[in-house]
Design brief:
Bound molecules: flavin mononucleotide
Distance between the termini: 15 Å
Radius of gyration: 19 Å
Number of strands: 11
Largest sheet: 5 strands, parallel
CATH superfamily of the largest domain: Flavodoxin domain
Helix content: 25-40%
Strand order of the largest sheet: 6-5-7-10-11
Strand content: 15-25%
Length: about 230
């Protein structure tokens, strides 16, 4: 997490000629954000996971609106498109469970690199189309593999390498809202297992194609963004 001290006092002259009032701490190479923040604001890094195989489909479109809002508020996005990765199914060997403090997996298919991106982030937003009342298989495979992040589940040393992070769920589906109940239940149980703090979920029902998405889907996407960083 990068703490952003307020850098510019925009209120001095209505923002026409901002004056530097305090220092800002930035990661190397980063440019300061000169607007949007209230005093003492915190820049949040959000890892977004697109679980749809369609990179320009309904889920990607709504997720794009969430990301747009987050970026507009000055937060940082790291997007993972699961379809770009060859994420093999968990083989249940539990070798990962014997390696404390590291998200190691014997499959060696590059999924570890995604885990390494999850660990330093502040919030994780998982987005999926509803497939057979559950997650798209690409995202389901990834969530199974997240067992690598949880150590000694139910034991005295139970801990999650992504514990305490905020998490949210976005789902698009063709059917009505009430048929997307199971995926929410499963996600919430996953979040509990991974010791994530659920901060919001958005289910967008009655989807056909991206250009047909209901007007209020964008409004709800923006609201989800604010829930994540609120
Ligand atoms: C294999 C498959 C299974 C689906 N299962 C459901 C379902 O159980 N319930 C539902 O409402 N929609 C279902 N749908 C529709 C998708 O959830 C919906 O069109 C979604 O918005 C597609 O998102 P995308 O454009 O990101 O791929 C299914 C679609 C496919 C291809």
């Amino acid at each position: 997490m990068q703490i952003c001290k307020f850098y510019v006092n925009l209120s001095l002259d209505g923002g026409v000629c901002p004056r530097i009032t305090e220092e800002i701490w930035l990661e190397s190479g980063e440019q300061p954000i000169l607007n949007r923040y209230s005093k003492g604001g915190t820049r949040v890094q959000v890892l977004t996971i697109l679980g749809s195989p369609r990179k320009s489909g309904n889920t990607a479109t709504v997720l794009g609106w969430v990301e747009e809002e987050l970026k507009g508020l000055g937060h940082k996005i790291d997007r993972v498109d699961v379809i770009d990765h060859r994420i093999g199914g968990c083989i249940g060997c539990w070798t990962c469970a014997k390696i404390p403090d590291e998200p190691r997996c014997v499959l060696g298919d590059g999924t570890e690199a995604i885990f390494e991106r999850m660990i330093p982030t502040d919030a994780i937003l998982s987005a999926s189309p509803l497939y057979m009342w559950g997650f798209a298989s690409q995202l389901k495979a990834f969530l199974d593999r997240c067992a690598c992040l949880v150590k000694d589940y139910g034991g005295p040393n139970y801990k999650s390498l992504i514990g305490g992070k905020k998490s949210a769920l976005l789902v698009t589906c063709m059917g009505p809202l009430e048929k997307a109940d199971l995926i929410q239940e499963i996600y919430n149980r996953f979040a509990g297992y991974a010791q994530l703090a659920s901060v919001g979920e958005l289910i967008v029902p009655n989807c056909t194609e991206p250009d047909q998405l209901a007007e209020d889907a964008k409004t709800q996407a923006k609201a989800l963004a604010r829930q994540i960083v609120g």
